[in-house]
Amino acid sequence: MRNLFLPLLTFLFFACKKESFTNSSSAHLRTSVDTLHFDTIFTTTGSTSQFIKVFNENDKGVHISSVKLAGGASSPFKINVDGITGPQVNNTDVLGEDSIYVYVTVSINPTAANLPFLIRDSIEINYNGNKKVVQLDAYGRNAHFLRNKIIKASEVWNNDLPYVILGGLVIDTNATLTINKGCKIYSHADAPFIVNGTLHVNGEKYDSTRVVFSGDRLDDPYRDFPASYPGLIFTDVSKNNILNYAIIKNAYQGIVVAEPSAGTKLTLNETIIDNAYDAGLLGINTSITAKNLLVSNCGKNIQLVKGGTYNFLHCTAATFSSNFIQHKDPILTVSNFLSNSTNSLNAVFKNCIFWGEANGIVNDEAVVMKQGSNSFNVVFDQVLWRVQTVPGNSTVNGAINNQNPLLDTINIGRKIFSFRLKEGSPAIDKGINASVAIDLDGNPRPVGTKPDLGAYEKQ
Predict the structure, then answer these.
(1) Which one-letter DSSP state was computed for residue 361?
(2) Nearest-5° angle of CA 231, CA 106, CA 219?
(3) Is the dihedral of CA 159, 160, 162, 163 positive or negative?
(4) Closest CA to 100 of 87, 89, 109
(5) Residue 20: is it exposed, middle or buried by C-beta count within 10 angstroms (0-12/13-18/19+)?
(6) 335 in Cβ contact with 304 (< 8 Å)
(7) b/e burial code for range 110-138 (CB count within 10 A of at least 16 → b)
(8) pLDDT in tens, 244-269
(9) Across-strand partners of 41?
C-alpha cells in the first residue's frame, strides 16, 4: 500500500502546482505582426475579423496588465482578447511557451471624401513595465448603399461613389437603369442584380472607365473568390439591354438571360465575364449578340440552352483550373432543349477561340446537342478550339483544331491571366472580315486584311 501511496502524492503535488510567472522586464513578448492592415472597407458595413497572435517564448508565464486601443472607445477598431471585448482588456495571462489571440475588426463612419481614405490606430500591450505596440490601419470608402432597392422609374448612375447593393436590386418592368463610365457596383453575397426592365451600361475602353460588377468583399483573399454574389439576371420580361465595356467578375453565375423579347434581348460589346463559379453566360431560349466578349475561368463558360438566337463575333472563351474552380465542363455548350422542352435554335460563332487547359479532363471544349424536329442551325465560321470530335449537328467553315492559341500570360499560382495573343499565335490573321473595327481593348482591327481570331487583336 505504501508503494502506491507515494506516487499518488507525487502526482497530486505536480497536478496542483501553480504556473510560475515572472515580473522581470527582460521577459519580452512577441507579436505575429507589427502592423495589421485592412484592405478597402465600405463605410457602415464593417470588416471581417483579423487577429494578432501574442507569443510568450519564456519558460515562465507573463501577466499582461492591459491590452488596449490607443483611440479608446471612439476608435473605429474593436478588439477581443481571448473572448473578452475591448476597447481595453485587463489582467490577461500568457503561460510559458504559449500564446493568446487578439481579434480585431473595424467599422468606418461615412465622411465627405469621395476617394479612399486611411484611418489609423494602435494596440498597446502592457506587461512587466514594458509596452508593445501594434499599428492598425484601414482604407475606408464611402458609397451609395442600396438595400433591397427597386428602381421603379428610369435613373442614371454616375461615377461619384461606388454602389453597394445589400439584399438585392430590381429594375422594374418599365424602368431603365443607365450606368455611366467608371462606375463600380459591389453586391453582397445575398444580393442578386435583377433586370425586369432595361439595363444600359456605358463603359469606355480604359481600365478606369469600364463599369465593374463584383462582390463587396475587397479584403484579401476574399476579393478573388468566385460565387461572391449571385450575378446579373435578365428575366423573361426584360428587354433591349446593352452592356458596353463592362466587367462582371466573381459571381455565382455571371449573366443569366431567360426567354426572348422583341429585338435582341442582350447586346454585349467589349465585355469581360470572369471567375464565375457556375456559368459565365447562361442563355435560355433567348437572343444575345456578343462582340469582343471574353469569358474566362468560369465553371461553365458559355451555356446556350433551350434554343434561341445567338450571334458571337470575335469572342474568346477559355478556362484554366484554380483552387476554386476545376475545369471539368466544356467551354461552350449549345442545345435546343432543356428537360423535355425544345425550341428553334439559330447560333453563329465567327472568329472565336474556345480553349481549355491542356491535359484537362474535358475532351471537347465545344458541344452541340439537338433534340426534336425544330429548326436548328449552328455555324462555326473560322474558329480555334480544342476538340477531339468536331461538334455534330453544326456547320464548320474553317477551324484550327487543337493548336495552342499561345495566350499571353497564364500564371495560375499568381492569378495572373492575359488572354491576348503572343507573337506566333496560330490565331493571328486567321479570321474573316466581320466588320468589327476594334477589339476588346478598344484597339483597331485591320482594314482590308484578315483580323485575328478571338477578342484581342495582336498589335
Answers:
(1) S
(2) 40
(3) negative
(4) 89
(5) exposed
(6) yes
(7) eeeeeeeeebebbbebbbbebebebebeb
(8) 999 999 999 999 999 999 999 999 99
(9) 140
Work out the number of other CB atoms within 10 angstroms of the CB of residue 357: 16
Chain centroid to CA 155 = 27
Cell 454602389 appears where? 163
**Which pLDDT belongs to residue 415?**
86
What structural domains does the chain harbor? 19-140 (2.60.40.10), 145-421 (2.160.20)
| Averaged pLDDT, 27-56 | 87
Q: How far apart are CA 28 and CA 82, in angstroms?
A: 20
Does pLDDT of 334 surpass 80? yes
Distance CA 411, CA 327 (A): 15
Q: How confident is the model at residue 18 (pLDDT cuts 50, 70, 90)?
A: low
Residue 412 backbone dihedrals phi, psi, to 5 degrees? -65, -40
pLDDT tens per residue across span 204-260: 999 999 999 999 988 777 888 999 999 999 999 999 999 999 999 999 999 999 999
Whether 13 has a pLDDT exceeding 70, the answer reads no
Q: How confident is the model at residue 47 (pLDDT cuts 50, 70, 90)?
A: low
- In the three-class reduction of DSSP (H, G, I as helix; E, B as strand; rest coil), residue 223 is classed as helix
